[in-house]
Amino acid sequence: MSAVVENHDHHDDHHGPKKGLMRWLKTTNHKDIGTLYLWFAFAAFLLGGAFAMGIRAELFEPGLQLMDPIRYNQLVTMHGLIMIFGGVMPAFVGLANWLIPLQIGAPDMAMPRMNNLSFWLLPVAFGILLSTAFMEGGLPGFGWTFYAPLSTNYPNVAYFVFAIHIMGASSIMGSINVIVTIMNMRAPGMTLMKMPLFVWSWLITAYLLIAVMPVLAGAVTMLLMDAYFGTSFFDAAGGGDPVLFQHVFWFFGHPEVYIMILPAFGITSHIISTFSRKPLFGHSSMVYAMVSIAVLSFVVWAHHMFTVGMPLVAELFFMWATMLIAIPTGVKVFNWCATIFKGSITYETPMLFAIAFVVLFTIGGFSGLMLAITPADFQYHDTYFVVAHFHYVLVPGSVFSIMAAVYYWLPKWTGNMYDEKMGRLHFWLSFIGVNITFFPQHFVGLAGMPRRYADYALQFAEWNAVSSVGAFLFGLSQLLFLYIVVKTVFAGKKATPQVWDGADGLEWTVDSPAPYHTFDVPPKVK
Amino acid sequence: MKNKLWALILYPLSFFMSADWLDVNMPVGVTDISREVFGLHMAIFFVVVAIGVVVFGVLFWSMWKYRRSNNKKPATFTENHTVEILWTIIPTLILIAMAVPASITLKKIYDHEAEEGGIDIQVVGWQWKWQYKYLDEQVGNKPLSFFSNLTTPPDQYEFNRVEKNENYLLEVDEPVVIPVDTPVRFLITSNDVIHSWYMSDFAVKQDAIPGFINVAKTKVNVPGIYRGNCTELCGERHAYMPIVVKAVTQDEYQEWLQSKRDLAEQIAYLTEKEWTSDELLATGEEIYETRCAACHQTNGAGIAGFYPALAGSDVVMNDKAKQIEILMEGIRGSQMQSFAEQLNEVEMASVITFTRLAWGNERSGDGEIVIPKDIVEYKETNL
Predict the structure, then answer these.
(1) Is A79 an active-site residue?
(2) Both B301 and B178 in a single domain?
(3) Which chain B residues have a beta carbon less than 8 Å from that of A63?
(4) Domain boundary among B206, B238, B266
(5) Which residues from chain A sit within 8 angstroms of residue B238, using beta carbons?
(6) 8 A C-beta contact, residue A506 and residue A103
């Protein structure tokens, strides 16, 4: 037995990280791959953010100032695609790579080589997608939802289709890896119900991804066939059905929305418990709530399509099913509040982001509940009210949770504490910026301003100007985030293994920074 | 210094005082349904505000009360079945209370039956304009039909060369006219991609989908001019296809119908008239600007990868018959639509003539003009 252990140590000595570029290209280490995913997501976040700045600059006042509507539509489309498939999703996969093995006491992900492949497919996919910028016809401009038949007649759509296929393959491989790792590599004694909530949230997310990514692949393949091979899946003139496209797309699209929020629930639960110095309220009800949300996500897709002219019974079903989601979501919010109640709370940067998440995500949930009321949705649908709604759940929702996670686990990843003052400054600038940007969009939406408009009527001018100012504030503050993270990677007060006095979990039992190989011998969980 | 400070304070204040600023809620609208929808909107809004006040109230109070400097010893409880059951059941009851009235209103909105004395108007979305066909009103031997195009001049939106109109981007050449207190059914479809017909004052938003006919029934109670938009991304000029509905009294409506019949007769006369190329050019340039320039551009150069150039095009310079065919039939699988219904014979001949003579096409090509009779002839042989 002791010989085996010695052998193990020996093994470690010779397989530290390689040097130079090849370390990153050929790595199979979950921490390296997590780092790659996170930096990729950060780059995408800045690029997608730059596109958003272009959009807000154009919308600063009525009229076309900076670009023609073709360019504007391209920015809107690419902003959506990059933020979803390049920003939020890879950021969560990066966190999964770093944290799942550490939180369940496993030495690495179950399939390390596939892990490498699923990351390196992403730059390939985005390379293909962005290459259209240099072609005649340019970038896709049909919205990230690529409704047929607008998309079937669009230039360069084949590049978009192949890029989506490759991203989908990457996501499916990543998800298989997550599920296999969680199911097989938990430390002895860690039963499913003892699993940390971030791991739980990712287990559910991974199942959602495997279920819906093939549906997206089907949608883009039918689109490709319609565009290049003379089929008529979505072409009414050939006997096809344009509404079918939307059903297929949103059957993917709605679970996709929860793919982008469930890991945020896991992160928030950890952080709120740590800084309240109190165990999470209702651990198992949190798990059940996430499972119910995931199951419900498969039966609410047509609430994105209330205006396509579905029969009354369908409208009623999707309205009621959508309203049901408020119940498990409410349970989660109440559980977080109950965790804070009677805690001993401090407000470090991760906690500030986590609380802002709870409050602003809930506001996004409120507008979501309003949108579920079908007759009212006939007014809200495809106006800025919807834009405000989904940005509230995605920006101060998913994105804030990712920022919270970065501040929370950065000392574990780098071994250095970040600059707390700078972190708080980043938080307040982001918090103020995000609200100035998106809150006024509720107003212009209710007053009737449609989304995806390059130009708009005069009565919307004032609030759009405000929204643009907020967007620039929010956008510029993210450069501060970049600075803080880079600075922490290279310097800072040394972090202890525990890092946060209230933190609980296996990742806090290893050194900071976490050694290249951890849990070669599984820990025991009581 | 002090003055500057005052200006800094007063500037935002003046900004806040402007009237548009307060335009922050859904319009109540001018139909029974729109008022009901507004009621639902306000009800659900107050429900979420009330929930927000309670939940955020508890959260912020706890955050203050249980800060570490005030509470060194955290509690350790992790569950409480009573409150957990309560915060599952109470939201469920609130949701049921909301779902019931919403379902009742929805059922009313879904009453699509034709009514005695009502009128049916077919609405067709085109890139980027709306066509209205009054299915019950004959003009000549066809239903009354016209297109509704944006009239805001490009000078106002491209580079903002001139001051914008009050109804910037919300004005059209021909509004759709409906009588008040009469059930009107809009039968909505599309000729190309998906559009959406959105009229906030009627609480109507229905997608215009090729191959489908969606019904929106409305009964406007108040005469007036109402403005709306396309709300489904339909390509580059998505923001430039507004909707204007003019609701008038029954008498005014009948007068308007009569004026439409008179106009049709007048056009029939103009078609027979002999036209000179100068007359055609003058009309043609105007039509080109409003109907063609959005894609093919004012200078006829098109946009590479999207819209072909007309300046220097072989068809435009040398193949009169082919050009007439393209304008009449459109090109399937491209964004070039049929203009057979959109332009009358005079307009069609003028705009074709304009393109054949403009941008140096006259010098490089055959320079032949097209007269309205050519179009009549084409229609007689092909349609």
Answers:
(1) yes
(2) no
(3) 156-160, 164
(4) B266
(5) 69, 73, 452-454
(6) yes
Cβ neighbours of A399 (radius 10 Å): 24
- B145 and B238 co-located in one domain: yes
Q: Is the pLDDT of residue A227 over 60?
A: yes
Catalytic residue among A118, A273, A329, A477: A329
Other CB atoms within 10 A of residue B154 CB: 16
**pLDDT at residue number A115:** 96
Confidence tier at A10 by pLDDT (50, 70, 90): very low
Domain boundary among B109, B141, B175: B109
* Shared domain check, B308 and B253: no
CA distance A333 to A355: 11
- Specify if B88 maps to a domain: yes
Q: Please tell me the distance from the alpha carbon of residue A131 to that of residue A505, in angstroms, as a whole number.
A: 44
Which letter, b or e, does each residue of A277-306 get, where b requires 16 or more Cβ atoms within 10 Å of its Cβ? Answer: bbbbbbbebbbebbbbbbebbeebbbbbbb
User: Count of CB atoms within 10 A of residue B111's CB?
Assistant: 12
What ipTM was assigned to the predicted interfaces of this complex? 0.91
Q: How far apart are CA B271 and CA B264, in angstroms?
A: 11
pLDDT at B17 > cutoff 60: no
Shared domain for B196 and B65, answered yes or no, is: no
CATH number for position B74 = 1.10.287.90
Q: Are residues B127 and B251 in the same domain?
A: yes
Residue B347 structural domain: 273-382
Rounded Cα gap, residues A482 and A164, in angstroms: 28
**B69 and B33 both lie in a single domain:** yes
Nearest-10 crossing angle of helices A112-131, A30-58: 20
Tens digits of per-residue pLDDT, B96-129? 999 999 999 999 999 999 888 899 999 999 999 9
Cβ of residue A448 closer than 8 Å to a chain B Cβ:
yes
- Considering the domain boundaries, does residue B238 fall inside one? yes
Q: Is a pLDDT exceeding 70 seen at residue A163?
A: yes
Q: Name the residue in chain A with its Cα closest to that of B206.
A: A307
Residue B5 lies in a domain: no
Active site residue A165: no
**CATH number assigned to the domain comprising residue B364:** 1.10.760.10
* Cβ atoms A229, A290 nearer than 8 A: no
Reduce the DSSP state of residue A289 to 3 states and report it: helix
| A7, pLDDT greater than 50 | no
Task: Please identify which of the residues A165, A186, A278, A332 carries the catalytic annotation.
Answer: A332
Report the candidate in A336, A326, A260 with the shortest Cα–Cα distance to residue A293.
A326
- N- to C-terminal Cα distance for chain B? 77
Could you tell me the CATH number of the domain that includes residue B226? 2.60.40.420
Please tell me whether residues B245 and B314 are part of one structural domain.
Answer: no
Give A394→chain B minimum CA distance, Å. Answer: 19
- Specify if B19 maps to a domain: no
Q: Would you call B29 helix, strand, or coil by DSSP?
A: coil
The C-alpha angle B37, B40, B42, rounded to 5 degrees, equals 110
- A:B CB pairs within 8 Å: 290
| Environment class of B1 (CB within 10 Å of its CB; exposed 0-12, middle 13-18, buried 19+) | exposed
- What whole-number distance in Å separates Cα of residue A433 and Cα of residue B150? 36
Contact call for residues A81 and A144 (beta carbons, < 8 A): yes
Q: What DSSP state is assigned to residue A515? A: P
Do B171 and B277 belong to one domain?
A: no
Average per-residue pLDDT for chain B = 88
Reported confidence tier of residue A205, pLDDT bands at 50, 70, 90 = very high
The secondary structure of chain B in percent helix, strand, coil, rounded to multiples of 5, reads 50, 20, 35
Number of domains in chain B: 3
At A13 the pLDDT is 46
Residue of A246, A307, A322, A449 best to disrupt the B interface, most CBs of B under 10 A: A307
Structural domains of chain A, ranges and CATH numbers in brackets: 31-509 (1.20.210.10)
